[in-house]
Amino acid sequence: MKQRKVPLRKCVACQEMMPKKELIRIVKTPEDEVLIDLTGKKSGRGAYLCGKVSCFKLAQKNKSLDRALKHHVKPEIYEQLAEDFISVEDEFLSVKESSNDE
Prior knowledge:
- There is one protein chain.
- The chain contains three helices and five strands.
- Strand 1 (8-10) and strand 2 form a beta hairpin.
- The mean pLDDT is 84.
- Helix 1 (53-62) packs antiparallel against helix 3.
- The strands form two sheets. A three-stranded antiparallel sheet has the order 4-3-5.
- Helices cover 42% and strands 22% of the residues.
- By secondary structure, it is α+β, with helices and mostly antiparallel strands.
């Protein structure tokens, strides 16, 4: 059976290339909302972060999310994303482990 090609994406903070399923997508929707997209299917401009809180903090410090999304991300949105990121991290890691088992 032919191997499927695994799409790679780059973490905007640490610049490391990883399989798309191992990264968390941050999306700027057409309504100018910035939020976490675990499904990877919401419409809008996306940026990828690896599942580490350190990478999220680095992206906030360097404003790499702003550049990747081509939109100014307000401090309130970073705070909301930080809360969401921490709550989503466990869920993301469990999904990642289950996909590795297959």
